[in-house]
Structures are given as structure tokens and as C-alpha cells.
């Protein structure tokens, strides 16, 4: 089995004429849930877009499942859930999923759609137009769309944003189940209690990596009582180090 699902070396991304990621190295172990955390604007989405292969002005090496990010061979093997819902509100749940299954070239679309609906627990809503679903249901359709190609790597950009604690807990149970099946999940989040559900944590700040750690080591290394305060401690330390260098 592959040791790392993603290996990044010397990643540099220029957006709006300035480097927003500069010299990033990291790896994502296969079969694990890796949390991508960091303040707003730290580069999480840009990193995820680079992994999926949809980001322009990327230099350095981004290897995904043994291939260069974005190569056509990876299309079905990588599922991407963007921050904003990317499903069609005027189509039903099943129509959306059939469409995404066709894009991914899924050989048995009906079976794949049914499996994705079951995974995200949307049974009973199959024929409902997405525009009439609740916010939480809609984000689960986006997750199902990312899942319908049966990907080995799932890249999920803030999948739980705006969801209530019950839905967040349920979605994290889904993520854990997907990882137990051998899939790799790279999940960004602002919600620090979600950090404790990850196998590994990547902490970004200002386009760089501040920490590559585990939830236990994050707490032990900072002496903080919870993930949120540990995170703030590391961000403050990194900011102070940067000021000392200047
Ligand atoms: N299209 C763009 N043109 C110029 N700058 C951009 C563009 N998209 C993003 N940026 C800048 O790149 C930096 C990283 O943005 P990115 O969206 O990756 O951050 P993020 O960590 O995902 O933030 P958030 O948590 O708020 O979603 C930010 O400073 C942002 O302003």
C-alpha cells in the first residue's frame, strides 16, 4: 500500500501577482484523516486547489496518488468538495449525482449514486430539488457529489461550515468511516474541536506550514487545555518568530 497519498515539495503559488504559498513541503499519509487548519487567508483553499490540480501559477512538485496533481488519470481517484456548494439547485439530488457520476466516467452510475446517497444519509430526499433542501442537506449533496466517483482521496474544503453540532458530529462519523475503508481525507476547518477527530493536523499561517502534528502532540507541545488555545499559541509563536527575524 502507498505510504503517502499526497507529497508536496517546494510548492509556490502566485495569486493576484503575489506569492500566497511560498516554499511548502508536506505529505498526507494514505488512509488517514488529515485536518488542514489555519487563519482565514492562510492559504488552505489554495493548497487544496493545488492538490486537486485546478490552481494556476503553481510551481514545485505536487504528487497525488503517485501521479502529478491534475493529470486526467486522477480525475476519478480524487473527489473535491469546494467551500461553496457546487451542486445545481434546480436539479434533484439524484439528477445532480448522476451528472457528477457522468463527469467522473463512473461505470455503474445508478449503483454509485445510490451508494453516495446512503453514505451521506440522504435517503428519502432523492427526488427533491436541491434548492428546496436545508443548508445541511445541501452540503451533504456536495459531499455525495465528491464521493460518487468512489475516490481514493477526498479533498474537502470546510465541509462542516454553518452546520449545527449534531450534523457536524454525523459528518465526522462519515469521514471516519471513509478513512476506515482505506480512503484518505484532507479536510479544512475553522472549528477547533474538529481537530481532535483527525489523525494528523497541518497548521498553516501566511502561506507556510506552522506545524505538522497530531492532536495529542498539539496539546502536549503547547501545554494548552484544548485545541483552540493550542492553535492560537502556535499561531502567536509563529508571528513572534517572524517579527524577530524582521
Ligand atoms: N483569485 C485571487 N486573486 C488574488 N488573491 C487571491 C485570490 N484567491 C485567493 N487570494 C489570496 O490568497 C490568499 C490565500 O487564500 P485562500 O483562499 O487560500 O485562504 P484560506 O486559508 O482558504 O482562507 P479562508 O479560511 O478564509 O477560506 C489570501 O490572502 C487571498 O486573499
Q: Can you tell me about this structure?
A:
The protein is α/β, with parallel strands linked by helices and 246 residues long. The chain has a domain of 131 residues: 3-Layer(aba) Sandwich (Rossmann fold). The protein contains 7 helices and 10 strands. The strands form 2 sheets. A 6-stranded mixed beta sheet has the order 6-7-8-3-9-10, with helices on both faces. It has a 4-stranded antiparallel beta sheet with strand order 2-1-4-5, covered by helices on one side. The longest helix has 19 residues. It binds adenosine-5'-triphosphate (ATP). The site of adenosine-5'-triphosphate (ATP) has 11 residues, from α1.
Summarize the structure.
Residues 1-231 form the ABC transporter domain. With 246 residues, the protein is an alpha/beta fold.
SSE layout:
Blueprint: E1 4-15, E2 18-29, E3 33-37, H1 44-52, E4 58-64, E5 67-68, E6 78-81, H2 93-104, H3 109-119, H4 135-147, E7 153-156, H5 165-180, E8 184-188, E9 200-205, E10 208-213, H6 215-222, H7 227-245
Parallel strand pairs: 3-8, 3-9, 6-7, 7-8
Antiparallel strand pairs: 1-2, 1-4, 4-5, 9-10
Amino acid at each position: 500500500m502507498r505510504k503517502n497519498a499526497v507529497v508536496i515539495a517546494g510548492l509556490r503559488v502566485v495569486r493576484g501577482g503575489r506569492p500566497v504559498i511560498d516554499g511548502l513541503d508536506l505529505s498526507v499519509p494514505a488512509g488517514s484523516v488529515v485536518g488542514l487548519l489555519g487563519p482565514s487567508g492562510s492559504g488552505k483553499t489554495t493548497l487544496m486547489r493545488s492538490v486537486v490540480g485546478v490552481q494556476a501559477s503553481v510551481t514545485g512538485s505536487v504528487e497525488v496518488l503517485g501521479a502529478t496533481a491534475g493529470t486526467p488519470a486522477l480525475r476519478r481517484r480524487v473527489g473535491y468538495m469546494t467551500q461553496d456548494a457546487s451542486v445545481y439547485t434546480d436539479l434533484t439530488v439524484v439528477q445532480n449525482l448522476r451528472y457528477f457520476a457522468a463527469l467522473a466516467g463512473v461505470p455503474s452510475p445508478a449503483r454509485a449514486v445510490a451508494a453516495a446517497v446512503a453514505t451521506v444519509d440522504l435517503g428519502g430526499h432523492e427526488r427533491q430539488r436541491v434548492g428546496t433542501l436545508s443548508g445541511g442537506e445541501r452540503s451533504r449533496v456536495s459531499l455525495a457529489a465528491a464521493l460518487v466517483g468512489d475516490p481514493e482521496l477526498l479533498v474537502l474544503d470546510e465541509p462542516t461550515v454553518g452546520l449545527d453540532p449534531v450534523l457536524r458530529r454525523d459528518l465526522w462519523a462519515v469521514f471516519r468511516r471513509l478513512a476506515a475503508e482505506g480512503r484518505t481525507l484532507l479536510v479544512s476547518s475553522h472549528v477547533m474541536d474538529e481537530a481532535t477527530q483527525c489523525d494528523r493536523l497541518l497548521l498553516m499561517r501566511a502561506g507556510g506550514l506552522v506545524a505538522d502534528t497530531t492532536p495529542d502532540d498539539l496539546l502536549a507541545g503547547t501545554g494548552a487545555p484544548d485545541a483552540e488555545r493550542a492553535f492560537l499559541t502556535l499561531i502567536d509563536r509563529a508571528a513572534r518568530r517572524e517579527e524577530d527575524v524582521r
